[in-house]
Each structure stands twice: as C-alpha cells, then as structure tokens.
Amino acid sequence: MTNEIRAIFDRIAPVYDQLNDWLSLGQHRIWKEMAIKWTGAKPGDTCLDLCCGSGDLALRLARRVGSTGHVYGVDFSANLLETAKQRSQAQYPQPHISWVEANVLDLPFEDNQFDAATMGYGLRNVTDIPRSLQELRRVLKPNAKAAILDFHRPNNQQFRTFQQWYLDSIVVPLADRLGVKEEYAYISPSLDRFPIGKEQVEIALKVGFASATHYPIANGMMGVLIISK
Known about the structure:
By secondary structure, this protein is α/β, with parallel strands linked by helices. It has helices at residues 2-12, 16-23, 28-39, 56-65, 78-89, 129-139, 157-177, 181-184, 187-193, 197-206; strands at residues 46-50, 70-75, 97-101, 114-120, 140-151, 211-217, 222-228. It has a seven-stranded mixed beta sheet, with helices on both faces. Strand 6 (211-217) and strand 7 form a beta hairpin.
C-alpha cells in the first residue's frame, strides 16, 4: 500500500500545487499560516515538516525560524522532494532546509530533536496513523507542539454533499485535464477512511501526547489537530 501511495504522489508531483489550490478553493495558504502559528515555532528553532510535498509548509516554516533556525522537510516521494528542492533554490536568501526522503512511520532522527512540527495533507494518506503520531512524538522535544492540517468529511450533511459534488464536478475533471484523473480518484475513499477530529484526539492521547485539540475549519471540510508532547 505504501508503494502504491508513493507512486501516486510521484506521478502527481508536476501539478500538485495547482491541484491543492483547486481542492482548497485557494484557501490552503491561510490555513498553513494558521497551522504554523499554532506550533509556536520561533526564530532559531529546529523544525520538522512531515509529508512536505512540494515544500509549501517547510518554506513558510523556514521564513519563521530565520537564518539561525533550520527546517527538515520529509517526504517519501522523490519527485515531490525534487520539486520542493527546486522551489527552495529559487528563493533568495536561501532558506535553511534539508530535504529528506523517508517514511513518516520510521523517521531517521534522534529522540527529542525538534522544537516544532507541521504536517499538511499527509496524515490521511499514512498507512498507520497511531504509528506515525508515535514517531512524531518521539522526535519532538518535551513540551513541543505539532500542527496537523488535513481535509475531512464534515458532520453536516449539506456540507458533506457540497464537498462530494465539488470533488466529483470540479476536482476530478480538472485532474483529468491535467492527466492525473485516476490518481485523484483516491481522495474520496481516503476521506471516508480518515478518523474524525474527536478520534484523532483520542489516538494522539493514546500514543502519549500530553494534550491534543482538534479545530474544525471551512465548515468542517478541513481541520487542524494541535498536539503537545
């Protein structure tokens, strides 16, 4: 399953940012900034961005930690990491980011290494959510926070219907035009499988986080899980 998901993300790498814009009605930038703010990342910190994709959150984190800080962007898709690397090299001054190809279920870092962490649109695609949160907890310093942003199925039936219509009528046809229709068909089933906010909080506490809060945004179509070690 992991290899299948990696292959999907390798194939959609060239159009990943464009599709995220459409998927989030162009709002993902605001939510990413909110997520970073919630982590409490500050200048000089060493931060982690899991499932970093094309590097959007990692680049934002790098701006926040500044020249004295450092960010590690982790993803298992070599193509997405290459896109992220090219984006960071086009920036001036050069952000302090290390791009690491790794699986979030087995992170290549020491215990208690990071001051803050983010994950954007990645938790829904990991094959073992408790294990990935356990690994995240391991590498965070005591009292450090992480913010996990992702799409959700809203509780409200009307918003649920709208979300499904939007996916079927807008996102999939757009993905078709960009030549990645089959790859984007996985979104619906992944939303159906994804634990709701309350369940995410329960999993986070169960794996040992000291506190966990889930904030629904965009009428419950999106959410941010804030967890503290």
